[in-house]
Amino acid sequence: MSHLRPKSRRLLAVGITLAAITLWIGPARLLQAAQRAYSKMMILSMVLDKIERFYVDDHDPDDLIDHAITGILSALDPHSVYLTPVEFANYKGTYQGYQGIGLKYNRLPEKLLVAAVVPGGPAAEAGIRPGDKIMRISGRMAQYIDDKELPALLQEPVVRLDIEREGVRDLLPFAISKRVIVPQTISSAFMLNDSVAYCHLERFIQTTPAEFDQAWSRLRGAKPTHLILDLRDNFGGDLQAGIKVADRFLAAGQLIAYTTGRGPGANMEFRAGAEAKFPPLPIIVLINGGSASDAEIVAGALQDWERALLIGRPSYGKALVQSEFTFQDGSALLLTTARFYTPLGRSMSRAGTSTTGAKTASDGTGAAFVRTASGRLLPASGCIAPDVELPEDSVDYAPALRRLLAAQENPLAIFSETFAAAHPELARNRNAYIREFQPSESLLRDFQQVARQAGVHFTPQDLNRNRDAVRFLLKREIAAMIWGEEGRTMITVLEDKQVQSCACYWHRARSLVRR
Question: What CA–CA distance (Å, rounded) separates 59 from 72?
């Protein structure tokens, strides 16, 4: 009589089936490998049986098997992973969408403050605005709802909210039906000044190429003469989306990337098609250590063909093809099945130093490089190295300011919402606000007083040490209360030192266009 639980028996059955299939179809070499694998599977099943029957403490065999799978994958590369059903559902939600109403909130003493709404989401379509105060959810007073209960209440099929809005005497009732919300992959696209357009791609999903086309269609009316394409902290996503975005910038027939691997269909080439192309403007692409996978494919192709100047920090180094294998219990295996290479044959993976297909040169130190059409040398492997390397643009807030930002009842949100409501004239001209508005000294002192009233000890000395940071945070949060997430992002970008540094290198980007 077997002592194995269902998942243990399923694991054994899978192993036996795979071994049997290999025995049936494979040559002598595969026969021996299959026999060894079968023996190991039998040993693993017996180990699980002994643990289940005799180990001093009770352990769930399902958990042990999950750990065993993880252990197997740890012998491969860091990106080949096993995802439990819950982990896989969350992973898919990042790229395919999630169920909800599409709003972000901050906790205030007696209410919830709407900090942002997802454009095109159910909350936005119902008329919810940043700065609205949620007083009741499904008839319950917000101030008495525990933080642990809130996510479930906001995930009900129909979420009923009673909203307090500045200038409206009575509470506004809303009944919002949740649905799948596809995440926006372009967090911001706007004119930095009269000539430079800026576009930030946060990730790549199926809708990204269409989003990019729509963003450019909006920007084109302002007649930009330069473009900053921001791929920082873009960890990739959908392969075809990355290929299609790169296609917008390259001439028909030009190689975008190619892959090599062992499995069927692993060796592929991706070339630009004949579709409409982006105009021949000077382009700067921003990358950093969070730029990976599809972001590296786009950056690498534009760098190899000398279509754009790359600025920032070296990329992550993960241009790998992840194949998705799903199982009947909702879990999944993400397995590395191929590596990507740039048009010139550069390996974009730190884990793989092969430069198969690359025409390499040497700088005299033995390091391998590839040569562009104009003779520039680019590192042949490891990651995508920018043409211009910039210092890290990290924010290091003083301890007092970090305590203020971490406060549960967010003084910054409370103050910004009150100020924005008291100054409706600010909303009349967004460009004027973004370029000209600066919080005054009296405004900083008023904010300090609100922080103290919220129980956050923020002294005049703390304010002196953090004056510039507080000014920036106030300006950004006030913008968010007026224009939502787009306003917050625009202020962030305009204060970004790496974005500001691009102005020093447009002459180099323009020289690439003339070649």
Answer: 20
